[in-house]
Batch of 2 targets.
Target 1
Amino acid sequence: MAGAAAADPVRTATLEAFADTIIPGAKRFPEDRAIAGVVDDPGAVEAGALELLAHSALGLAKALDGMAGLLNMHAQNSARAKQLVLDPTVPPFVALDFDARTALVQELTDPSHPEREVWFGVALFCTMAFDSAPHLSTVDALEQGHPGLSILGFHHPDEDRSWRFPHFSYQRQLATVHPQTTTTGNPA
Amino acid sequence: MTSIEQTDVVIVGSGFGGAIPAYHLAAGGARVVVLERGPWLANDEFDHDFLLGSSYTRIFDFTVGDGMSVLAGNCVGGGSVVYFATMPRAPRFVFERTGSLGRRMWPATINRDTLDPWYDVVTDALPVTEQSWNDVPFAGGLFAAACTHAGRTANPVPSAIDKPRCTNCNWMMAGCRFDAKRSLLLNYLPAALAHGAQIRPLHEVQRLSRTAEGGYRIHYDVVDDEDYRLTRGGGVIEAKIVVLAAGAGATPVILQRSEAELGTMPAAVGRYFSGNGERLNTAVVNDDRARELLGLDRGHGTAYEAHQIGKGPCVATWDKLDASLPEYSRYSLEQLYFPPGLGTVLAQAPGATGPTWFGREKKEMLRQWRSWLTVFAMTEDDNEGVFGAPPTRGNAERIAQQMLGRGSLRYDPTENTLRGWAESDADVRDILERDGLARVRPWTNDQVGAYTVHPLSSCRIGDDPATSALDDRHELRNHPGIFVTDGSAVPGALTVNPALTIAALAERAIPGLVRATQQRGVSVTYGAPSPDGTTTAVPPPRSV
């Protein structure tokens, strides 16, 4: 997991802004710039997107500085093309508003974009941080009230950390089976 | 002079295509060594956990290709450990398919009637059992009721699940810790071990070469047990017979890499790959409409909201498995569960006005995750997948320590395949959006291309040497003594879950495989009784 804590603040803010574009969240504090704050509950950043991206098991940690730099270059180019002047006190991608960030991510993940695999990969891990929290043990994540698993409504396990659903079926026939079903219950 | 290990038969891979020959050949008296690239886990190591490094990432591989990504097992027991154990037989018309060849794809010796006895053998051995409506989880029940509402039929699908043991936890892709899923760890593999077969996990076969005596050298690397990008040395074994069963995403790659030493491969090695025509749609169900239209009630006023509960796909509609329909317009639709992570990122938010697979509207869709219903279409694709040059080792350049890699498969869907997907998508919409029951969209193919959990046909059987790599006994053309018995041998998409067909074909191949082994001077007989489903799992050695 090395890397997240010691990361350069420009990289952190840039990747947080990317993660927030994938699954948006509420601002953590009033002057939060990385999170655009377009919704009122936590998103990918608070779910742990940066911890996951820097996780040693993924093999991306060394590439994150470069990715943040590339993302800021794209943001700068995009702003220049639109003749926008970006706030110089934050990284260019962070300076974009949520809709501009979204438009840029759409462009970068378009099937025709040469870097599509890179940006989809980052987006995949941001989504996973939110909806399955693979940087945490799932039981621990649930016990900590992980925001993504909570929003999904992922059920809690039994005391032995296993899931069981004893009440699982309507227990009635809800369709007529195909008339040519064989005696073994198979398609003819 | 020789210190190279010798055996009678080396089997590469331990899924259905490997475990079945391993059992029969060992029971018949041959010396059998099974080399499996993935780890060997006992049932208490099958975690209910998405944590990186838990069984979920240790035993599964997601290989991204160009236009097609493949999910496959990577462990002792192969696909049987990670799959959903849905085990229908392929419909009769499948064996008469012509695809784009203009002639029958399957060998003349195989049709539903000739394969049924082999289906019976596997059905008894695993065993595969029918499901009653009492076994069907809420998601399957909802799909069945929606089919009824739309004037369709729907069937509970036979499965290799010991229903009384099943907790409906839906963690099947991480392996079954309750031994409810009748994986190969509970039947063929322990039976093979009991007859002296050896199983060596974390042994990744890279290539084959020939011995002076007409046998084969199998060259392998030993894979690190945590970081699969690393190897820990390697070795060579010599065998008289080789059975390749590394899966349709890996078997042709081993043969491609062997071509320099073995000589020209049949043209169909690494071609004609099929993704089983697979396609996914995710619906968000309106709970009120489910109650009003379908009369569903789980108690406490909830009609559904049960996406997480169950045991994978349990109910399918087979109305379009109709031989009178034109090829590429026949498919089954099956209710399915995919866990979060891999099962959510490609789902598109129905009705989204902005981006569909990420962003604000996707988050709103995730908020309704308990109301998701995923529907799996298995259509007839056009065998359009082709493998490019093999990677340095294995079948992918591994990106992460486990699970994620980049492979060389290219898949550019033809108009036929696209039409089948479009027709099945429209059918899913017709069933689920009727009267406002749900809103549905297919998963996006824009990011990782199409995807399959049932890779097939990359080294297939057939009668025509130009379009099939194997003869109808599964022997590699022009390379006697190499057999292929996994999903790559299946000629084309099956319109249903393929595991039972792969297993039945492997059983059917055994008599010929035994004869070939005998002809190479090995004392081996055919006729061992099938594992009867009462064998006990043999735990893996704790230190490998």
Note: The CA atoms of residues 26 and 38 of chain A lie 7 Å apart.
Target 2
Amino acid sequence: MGGSLIELINVSKRFPGVLALDRVSMRIEVSEVHALLGENGAGKSTLGKILFGVYAPDEGVIKVRGREVRIPSPRHAMKLGIAMVSQRPQLVEDLTVWENLVLGLGKDLRRDLYRTIDEVSRELGIELDLDKPVWSLSYTEKQMVSLVKSLAVNPCLLIMDEVTTYLPNNVRSRLYEFVKKFVENGRSVLFITHRIREALEIADRVTVLRKGRVVATYNRGVDIDSVRRAMFGDRYWNGFGTHEKTVALGNMVLTVSSLTVLGDHGEEKVRGVSFDVREGEILAITGIAGNGQRELAEALIGLRRVARGRITFMGIDITRYPPSKRVSMGMGFVPDDVAKMSVSLEMNVYENMALRLGTTRFDALAKVFESYVHEIPVYTPSPKVPLKVLSGGNLQKIAIIKELASQCKLLIACNPTRMLDEASAHRVRNVLRNVAKRGAVIVFTEDVEEALGLGTRIAVMNRGTIFGPYHREEIDVAKIEELMVS
Amino acid sequence: MIERFLNPLALALTLAVLGDVVVERSGVLNLAIDGLFVLCVAVTFSVFVATSSPIMALIAVLACGAVLAVVMSMLINVFLANHVLAGLAMNMVCYGIATIVGTRFLGRALPTSLYMDTVTIGVVVALSTALTWLLLYRTSFGVALRACGYNPRNAEALGIDVGRTRLVAMLLGYELIALGAFVYLASYVGTWSAGLGTGWGFLALSLAIASLWHPVLAPILATSFAALYVSMVEIQTHPIRIGSVVIKMSPAMVSAIPFVAALVLVSILYATPLRRIVSPPRALGEPYFREERTL
Amino acid sequence: MLKIVIVRRELGLSKRIALSLTSIALCLAVSALIIYAITGSTNVVFAAFTSFVDLNTLRYLGTLTVIALGLCIAYRAKLWNLGADGQLVIGAILATWFALYTPLCSSSMGIVLGLVVAALGGMAWSFIAIALRIWIGVNEALATLLLNYVAYYLANHLVEGPWRGVAVHGYPETDLIPRACWIPCVRGYSFSPYIVAMALLLTVLIHVIVKRTRFGLAVKALGTGEALVELSGISAKKVALLAFLMSGALAGLAGGIELFEVQRKLILGTKFSAGLGFTAIIVAWLAQLEPLLVPLVSYFVGALLLMMVGIQIAGAGVGDAVAQVIVGVLLVSTLVSNFFVNYRMKIVKVKGVKL
């Protein structure tokens, strides 16, 4: 290895209400794969985005090849030879693949583009149609476009932020090979991930972040237990909790028959899906993001129009009902993006509760809120401050509490634990189990293990169709992953 | 028949609509267009009268467009102002300045009227349409410009400087609109009174929306609209007789018709599925701040 | 090279107030400069500023408060009603019709009925825009702007044609409305205490609606997004409709007030409204969409307007235009000061990168 490529010294970044990075110092050497490991919300992505010029650090120094630099925009980052691929492809969906690739590229770099495309296609075994609009591509293809784009600027540092999470196994292992080859001639990769095994397999060195701080840096060959301890601290992690053995099923709550739903561009995102949910059940729907889960969830609650098919709730055909009517009939919804759809950041906790529960007697609402905070701890400076000062995880918890307090018969939750640390996630899962005792729950989750741990039945979505639902005993992680990418 | 479509008003409107298409394709909601138009009309008039030179008037009007583009771009891209309010504020300032500037020469006539024949107008309309289309769909800057209108956040991640791209888009668009105002005064109206041109910017904006921000559809709508308007003005002076029924309209009602027509046109186009075919600038009017945390 | 970096921040209340005051002071300085540039006399500048202690300002306070209160509701829901000017004109047209062409205005409840008719007119006019928005998706900012012109020309058509007064010697205006419909002003001044009282009462009422009812919360939530309102079990369409119609009704009501209290006849559309509908937009934003602040800001902005009237009389001839510029500058400085409330600017040196 030949000296340090990138050096961070005491870099801090604060968002309203959270200290995302707390005096982080680390070094990325030339020709190494450096893994950045941590739980959700540990600050990994923030660090990546600072290096890529999306965020400006509040404090601290960044050095590239020993020279102190400022990176005020992604454009500057690319000029410095820093490129990034994210978990969610950062592409302009309305433009074609080619247009996305040439965007912002100088003429000299454009000449090598075809070679890069060929190289990536060969290495990953995927063909690209350059004239297709990006929205029509599969997730894997989009990730490939992102990769080609970031390689097109001849980077000396490639940041890969959770890129493998949703890739099929065969592509994933080819990508590992690609990364290893990439660093051979003096280039480096910052590989951001929350999977310990992945980090240990691919990385020359591993840096662990916890709550915005660097806890440790290990060289290749470290044992998995010390890494796990560094990542989670002393907290004992007991997985996804246990189920009660028998579930008493009650009345039919929701029936969905041959449902077809269109995406933003008029394409069929959900194709003829049918299933039903009874009282006492938790139906977990899993799959790679972008396979129609969002559209299905939105159709169930009424935020998206149904093209064909029928939805029946408590025996009533609600296919054409607006969301407000479904909610007043006893449905509850926790969306993916709670800050846009579930809570108002300008209002305080009680006002948000009042909006959902329909009473403006704030003292009564305070009591209701208190009773739920015992189950799901929410950290606010005061319940009277507007929610915009809270962290994403706490917003998520408030969104869930609101729905619990509404005593809904059917709760539809999209990735309800994605923003949460393990302890909170565990509590939320328990709460969802309790909801199922008096009603039914549908959970959309991208986390296969969560689907298995939480669902009484599990369904897998792939390209708009649904496999299952299967009973928990009929299915395991391997089978689900197979269905996800088949 | 053809001269009805290719009148000076059609040219003015086409230029303004194309300018608006360029601005709005980059994601900037362009409500300031009306104030810009009115001010440019007043500037054209004043400079033309003061210097007797159409060239000087043209230079002045282009400078005016550039200054306003820079000011609006500051408000929207640097101060992250709400597009609606920023546009409204600019309109008020511009209306006021236009009256102050124009009143000094009130009552004076243009030394010469800039006559344009049908062929010239046709050529300029076709040329400006073709150039705008080429700019938007066949240059790498056009790709960047449209990317800013679709999704500024991801465009930035792909290496675009959103602020700079929008500034250039606004400079180009505002110059086109300023040219439209120049033609409107020098070739169509020929004289000036306080408030002249008010509302025509909003009409151009409506036509741009109705044409789904497409540079080829835009001039078609603009010329048809101008033809309709010119015909209406004629009805006002020469009432149509159909049998014993005389269709006659007061000047005020004729003036109101374009606004009703524009609203109806936009509504009809929005009610049809056509708008799902041409992809509109989805991020239109959203203030964009790169560091906004996305959950 | 140098580059400006913008960083988000949270500012304390005292600093926010200080910033607002700075922007107001800045605006006053600009107005003084403009007046001086036009008249070339410092005496006129000083004379102009006496409008801040002139009771005639209350005439603007009434009208501006009523319109701006309605706009606060619409803007809280992020519904862009830019058509208050047109809704005001329509309200005035209907009030004129009521006063001149129905016998009802001489009844004891005549004025109240007339104001109700005016409010209904403004409401109906705003309904066109919000209906197009809700059911077809037409941008309501654009629709309301276009409808303003339709309203102006409708008024012009009436006063130039069918409603032109017999006693006006060919001027484009109607006859004066019957005395029974005049809202009496304080002797020697041009404002009515009843209207001021009504404006203050409405302020309290709107404040309670906005802060203490579920509808008020839903309006604010609509500003975040339709989905949030719908997922709370409230119909977003109904909230949008109601919020927008309230703003239209209040603008229409203001049209009735202008007719009964100030103009007492219908004149050309833009002359009648005198841009009050637009000025009220600035009042609403300067008041941070807080109903209780609206009368205060209305007084301030009203004083600016009165100042311009004074200059007009002083012989500058373009007082209206100057007023427009100053009001526009006031809005710009509000926008810029809002920016500094939420963000901080840092100038940084970018080294070693060629662009």
Note: Chain B is about 70% helix and 0% strand.
